[in-house]
Amino acid sequence: MEFGLTEEHQQIRDEVRRFAENEIVPNAEEYDTAETFPHDIVDEAAEMGLVGASIPIEYGGAGYSTLESVIIAEELFSHDPGIALSIMACSFGTEAIREFGTEDQKERFLEPVAAGEKISGAAISEPDTGSDVSSVSTRAEKDGDEWVINGTKMWITNGSVGDFFVVLCETDPDAEGRYNGFSQLVVEADRDGFSSEKITGKMGIRASDTAELVLDDVRVPEENLIGTRDAAFMQQMYFFDETRTGVAAQGLGIAKGALEASLDYAQEREQFGKSISEFQAIQHKLADMATKTEAARNLTYKAAWNVDQGNDITKLASMAKEYASRVAVDVADEAVQIHGGAGYVNDFPVERFYRDSKITQIYEGTTEIQKNIIARELLD
């Protein structure tokens, strides 16, 4: 088995790291405190091909593989998760267009995202619907050659800054079977009846925009329907191996960042006349943090490689997501402990890593959902 990265992979990592050190790190605290979307940094990232990294080259994207996207996410999140998510989430929702959309939809929606001219979003969750995607109540009814959409979406990334959203709607309430009767429609933010309200006061990833969307008799044309009508639930399931591996990469990046910050601090901080890195208690913490991070990396990279091979890896993707997110929380927690009082304030990045880490155990399927999936796959 080959465990090393190619020279091209290493070049990607090095370039992203330089970008993060120069553009993200000096501004991370500012955007986190203000809870504002980093438009200027996102524009710089778009010029490097980091926005819409997985969008095919023929539509202006970099065409990166899942493994390459994981490497990018790991590096960005190891510097600041909030700004990292802002960059990588600019193409949320475009996965459906990329895989199931028409040629016209790909040209209309993928190309401007890849160019950094527009921001997309995926609108799935609702105030009363989180893990149970099949319970969405947002309705879309056909009226001539248009769809009329009514409903509310909650916790939507890019909700108040996005230009268009891929919205999961119920289109046939009488469909047989719990998972039938749902469709995905592209809704542009400038359509009549569409409104958003930014959500503030988040525990972490505060630079990333989150909002509530309200759709009140929003009309979109028939050509905004993605893929097959009433088949959106299975379309959504198609991407979970990829997207959950992506969240695993986020958790891995947070763990990496917290570990690196702790290694630096432990060698600089002195107590009782010597560096605290010389104390066995600190050494054991660092050893455990490094071991968990490396284990998360191997599991995440394995999942990404298998996605690129076209393998069905439902169990492996959930394992990677569950474990890497748990490692992110554990390593960030220990990082704060190593920093002591200094880790409890925002003078050092570990305070931010600690707050940011928790979301990786919640979105794209909670820890509990991942364990259910793993157990189901084992027992099937």
CATH class value of the largest domain: Mainly Alpha
What value does the Rg take, in angstroms? 21 Å
CATH topology of the largest domain: Butyryl-CoA Dehydrogenase, subunit A, domain 3
Uncertain runs = none
Structural class computed from helices and strand pairing: alpha+beta
Q: How many domain units?
A: 3
How much of the sequence lies in strands comes to 15-25%
Write the CATH architecture name of the largest domain.
Up-down Bundle
How would you explain this protein's 3D organization?
With 380 residues, the chain is α+β, with helices and mostly antiparallel strands. The chain folds into 3 domains: 7-114, Orthogonal Bundle (Butyryl-Coa Dehydrogenase, subunit A, domain 1), CATH 1.10.540; 120-230, Butyryl-CoA Dehydrogenase, subunit A, domain 2 (Beta Barrel), CATH 2.40.110; 239-379, Butyryl-CoA Dehydrogenase, subunit A, domain 3, CATH 1.20.140.10. Helix content is 49%, strand content 15%. Strands 1-4-5-8 form a 4-stranded mixed sheet. The protein has a 4-stranded antiparallel sheet with strand order 2-3-7-6, with no helix packed on it. It is globular, with a radius of gyration of 21 Å. The model has no long low-confidence stretch (mean pLDDT 95).
Q: How would you summarize what this structure contains?
A:
The chain has 380 residues and is of the alpha+beta class. It has helices spanning 7-24, 28-34, 39-47, 66-77, 81-88, 94-100, 103-114, 232-238, 240-268, 280-308, 314-339, 350-357, 367-379, and strands at residues 120-123, 139-143, 146-157, 164-170, 182-188, 194-198, 210-221, 225-226, 270-271, 274-275. A four-stranded mixed beta sheet has the order 1-4-5-8. A four-stranded antiparallel beta sheet has the order 2-3-7-6, with no helix packed on it.
